[in-house]
Amino acid sequence: MKRILIVKVTSMGDVIQAQPIVSDLKRAFPGVEVDWAVDESFAEIARWNPGIDRVLCAPLRRFKKARRWGDFKAIAQSISELRAYRYDFALDIHGVYKSAIISFLSRSRRRLGYRSKDLGERGAAFAYTGRFAPPRDRNAWNAMRETVSTALGYPLEGPADHNLHIPVPAKPLVDTGGRPLAMLFHAASKDDKKWPADHWIAIARDLVRRGYYVAVPWGSTAERDEGLAIVNQVEGAELLPRLSVTEIAQVIAASEFVIGVDTGFVHLAHALQKRTVMIFIATSREIFGNNVPFQSVSIGDGNSVPPIAEALAAIDHVHTDPLALDGHGKSVAAA
């Protein structure tokens, strides 16, 4: 096995949570080179992983919206780069037309993709010479790892290794005055994924009481206004200036705790092994959530708004020292 292409084009959370596949492949096939095809919007995420040998990207989203000639030329150039090497396998773990086309255009005679019923767009099946099926009763992230390991015939070893190395900024982006940093991701791509502002205010106040400096990022004017409504009610909380994806990642890397709704940046916090609480309101925590005892907790049933008390209990859990518990999960000090 000399070279493998992974195709996972979007979105942020999916690209982040698929990164352990690279470490798995490098361990299973020593010396193999792994390339990754991704939309330009998320290319920097793949570049944070030193295990990826080439990041192949094109402005697919932007071209779909604007149809600009410059973007078309960039896509044409990316096709040329895609075909510069012959791959032993092209693995489409996305399963839509655009990812299937990328797989089809690659110089690989063995192109693997999901079965028709597991595809995001069934017409994508035209591109594949072989098919795989995700295991049942797994969340999406573990299922991706298992799918690829089964398809290529190697065992999975150890926990997921995201291997993401965020570039260090020239100077800290947030001045916390010496306090540990907590990030609060209130914004979501859809309104039905948002948590009420009064819930966020209560959580921010609790974090300040715990000694944290609370930072609230944003990406749009509406998100800025929503964030401002939170920090104006919490002394010790700051609305950050508008930051790039890499800059937000750098702030996450400098933080001690992250809480937020189901969004890519909270998945990044989990991948960086930060204390993390993720809130699920309209999506499934069983499928998309992260759970590592005393580090990362997902709450909510995906159909209703989780109460403040549930979030506070989750915060308590990720701040618990497991060494201070007895065999029954109770505090040794309390006993």
UniProtKB/TrEMBL annotation:
Pathway terms, separated by semicolons: Bacterial outer membrane biogenesis; LPS core biosynthesis
Membrane topology classification: Peripheral membrane protein
Record's subcellular location: Cell inner membrane
Any GO CC annotation of this UniProt entry: cytosol
PANTHER family listed in its UniProt record: LIPOPOLYSACCHARIDE HEPTOSYLTRANSFERASE 1, TETRAACYLDISACCHARIDE 4'-KINASE-RELATED
EC number: 2.4.99.23
GN (gene name): waaC
Matches recorded under InterPro entries: Glyco_trans_9 (IPR002201), LipoPS_heptosylTferase-I (IPR011908), LPS_LOS_Heptosyltrfase (IPR051199)
Catalytic activity: an alpha-Kdo-(2->4)-alpha-Kdo-(2->6)-lipid A + ADP-L-glycero-beta-D-manno-heptose = an L-alpha-D-Hep-(1->5)-[alpha-Kdo-(2->4)]-alpha-Kdo-(2->6)-lipid A + ADP + H(+)
Protein name (record): Lipopolysaccharide heptosyltransferase 1
One GO-annotated biological process of the protein: lipopolysaccharide core region biosynthetic process
Similarity annotation: Belongs to the glycosyltransferase 9 family.
Organism: Paraburkholderia franconis
GO molecular function: ADP-heptose-lipopolysaccharide heptosyltransferase activity
Alphabetically ordered keywords of this record: Cell inner membrane, Cell membrane, Glycosyltransferase, Lipopolysaccharide biosynthesis, Membrane, Transferase
